[in-house]
Give the backbone structure.
Amino acid sequence: MNVGDSELIRLSMNRNNFNEVSNPKDAYICIFNTCSIREHAEKRALGRIAAVKGKDKRGDKLIVVAGCMAQRLGKELIKKSGADIVVGPYQSPNIGDIVSNMVGLENDRLYISQDKSNLADRIPYEFINIRGDDPWHKWVTITHGCENFCAYCIVPLTRGKLISFNSDRIVEYIKGLTESGVIEITLLGQNVNQYGKDSDDIPFYKLLEKISSVEQLVKINFLTSHPMDFTEDIIRVINNSINISRSIHLPIQSGSDNILKAMNRKYTSSHYYSIIEKIDKIISDYAVSTDFIVGFPGETDDDFNMTLEVVKNIKFDEAFMFAFSPRDGTPAYLLNDSVDENVKQLRLEELISIQRKFSLEKLKKRVNKQEKVIADKISKRSNLEVSGKTFLSHPIVFTGDHNDIGRERIVEIDEVRGSTLFGKKIG
Ligand code: SAH
Ligand code: SF4
């Protein structure tokens, strides 16, 4: 989501005639797009802002702090970090306008309104013809905010209520993107499966179906799904469309029903298993990835062992694993952060090491298969190789050059090295 917002920020700066420099030292305006999901992320952001401010000997840099930390701390952040302008995530597409109105003025420095009256149908048509970070790919935000209130999560506080952007406009925008050369998109939302629930618009699976019929699109990714709302309709649409990625990201968070309940996730582990069974029945070749939090308040050894059980039974292709970080303002912040920091770290290490084995096992199963790949860059090791992700989101390196970047290729997979697939282009 933040990578997508950063692209919006960049496009809106470009549209206002600001030029990007490669070294922050040379910049007059520095924009920090921040994340509040864990305390560590906020500390790092403050450290980076302080480092840039420290080097600003002439004191002429304009410091803009954007993202969830800006929304969460508001005015306090101006005092705490010395920011000149604080802009919430809802305002990302407007940052270029805000900054250009602001340069040289000392008036309003806080832009954290989440007023949806004028932004309910916000789709950045004006960015269609501005090159994104990767010209063949664009991030497409379909919902803003989240009202699920998972007990540990700061997002409902920083990003506010669920707002679904209008489906006809989303499709029109995507068609416009394909006319300007985009072949891959990533649909974004905190829980994309809830698309349309705040309005009388179509449900997510119908939106996905409509988007997949845009012929020029080679690959459609979407993030993030929620087990509570991930229905069979969605699985069927994925299976019926050749241009929807077969990589499904479905965060489970914990294998223990007690912890899932305390987290307010509104599903049980057996419900999660039933979704995986459905995917397995309907889609012949797919990858599944997830998120875990260890050390949630009250998590016992038994609860943690249930998480390990899930990892062993489901064999995720990939997992993003975190130690619980208490966030002020969330319901879990009020609970006793009962799991000792050392225990949290030990559990996290154990989980990571077990998951790593399964990730490798999954990669090895891809050897001798042919995969559709859009390469995104020249490989770090050699300029006779390019790297990208397969349709199942596995990282891959294959023989090629700059002519392959941003184009659909068929690659035969030869081997696994480290945690990457290697192969050769056959079409
Ligand atoms: N909307 C998405 C992503 C939320 S943030 C979703 O619902 O899945 C991404 C991940 O960060 C979450 O899935 C969770 O695993 C982790 N996370 C969120 N809050 C956290 C916290 N307070 N401490 C540790 N991890 C957290
Ligand atoms: Fe946070 Fe839960 Fe919403 Fe995801 S679904 S953003 S974890 S509250």
Observations:
- DSSP finds 13 helices and 17 strands in the chain.
